[in-house]
Amino acid sequence: MALIHCPECGKEISDKAEKCIHCGHVMKEQPKIICEDCGNEIPEGAETCPVCGCPVKVEVEEKPIPVYLQPGTPPRKSLYAKIGKKGIAIGLAVILVLIGGGIAASKAIANQKAADAAAEAAQISADYKTNYSSAVMAMYTGAAKAETCGGLIKNVWYNAIWDKYDSETYQYTQNASDFNDALANLFSDSDFSSDISSIKSSKDTVQQYMSTLQSPPAEWENAYNALEDAYDAYLEIVNIVTSPNGSLQTFSSSFNDADTKAATTLEKALGYVKD
C-alpha cells in the first residue's frame, strides 16, 4: 500500500481508495449498472431499475474462509513429516520382508513339488525294476525247463530211430514200434507231462509281465528292448518243445538255435537288473 495526494484537495490518501476521505473526490469511476431488461442506466445503490422495475443483481464475491489456529496450536505437519524418514524406512523394510517371505514360500512349495515328483518317479522306477526282474526270472525258469525237456525229446527221438540204448530214454523206447510211439510214451509220462504243463503255465505268467512292462520309464527303455528280444527267443523255444513237429533233423536244428538265442538274449536282459 502507498499514499498519494488527492488531485482535488491535495491531501494524502491511500492509492487504493475509491473516494478521497477528505473532500469526497471520486478517485476511481465505478462501472455503470445497466438494466438487463430495458437497457437504461441504474443509479448507484438502487435495488431496482427506476424505469422498468427490474431488480438489480448484486454479485457477491466468494472469498475463502480463513482457518485460524487457536493460540499455541502448532501448524499441521505433512504425512511425510508425521511418519518421518525412519518410519518410511521401517515400512519399506516390512514390505521387503513380506515380499521375501512370499518368494521363499513359493520356492519352498516348488521344491516340495519337485521332491514329490522325484520320489514318485523313483517309486515307479523301483516298481518297474521289480516286475522286470520277475519277468526275466520267469523266462529263465521256463526256458531252462524247456531246454531240459527238449533235450530229452531229441534223445528219445534219436534212440527210437537208431535203436540206441540209453538208461534215460529206455523206458520210452523199449516197447515202441517207432519214434512216434516212443514220443507218445514220453508225453504220457506223468513227470514229463507235469513239466510240459509247467512250461505252458510259465508262458501265461510271462505274458502278463510283458503286458505290465509295455510302457517303460525313460531310463528303462533300453532294458525293455532287450527284454522284448529275450521274450521272442523264450516263446520260440517254448513253442518248439511243447509242440514238436517235423523231422528229427529239423527239430534238432530249430531247438538248438532257439536254445542258444534264448540263453544269449536272457543273459543280456538280466544284465540290466544285476547289482
Order of helices and strands: EEEEHHHHHH
Give the oligomer, counting copies of the same chain as homo and different chains as hetero. Answer: single chain
Spatial strand arrangement across the major sheet: 1-2
The total strand number stands at: 4
> In what range is the share of β-strand residues?
under 5%
Give a structural overview:
- The strands form 2 sheets. The chain has a two-stranded antiparallel sheet. It has a two-stranded antiparallel sheet with strand order 3-4.
- The chain has helices at 79-162, 170-173, 179-188, 190-212, 221-242, 248-270, and strands spanning 3-5, 12-14, 33-34, 41-42.
- The protein is mainly alpha-helical.
- The protein is 60% helix and 4% strand.
- The protein contains 6 helices and 4 strands.
- Helix 1 (79-162) packs parallel to helix 5 (221-242).
- It is rod-shaped and about 170 Å long.
Primary descriptors:
two-stranded antiparallel ribbon, mainly alpha, 4 strands, two-stranded antiparallel sheet, 275 residues, single chain, rod-shaped, 6 helices
What secondary-structure arrangement, pairings included, does this model have?
Blueprint: E1 3-5, E2 12-14, E3 33-34, E4 41-42, H1 79-162, H2 170-173, H3 179-188, H4 190-212, H5 221-242, H6 248-270
Helix pairs in contact: 1-3, 1-4, 1-5, 1-6, 4-5, 5-6
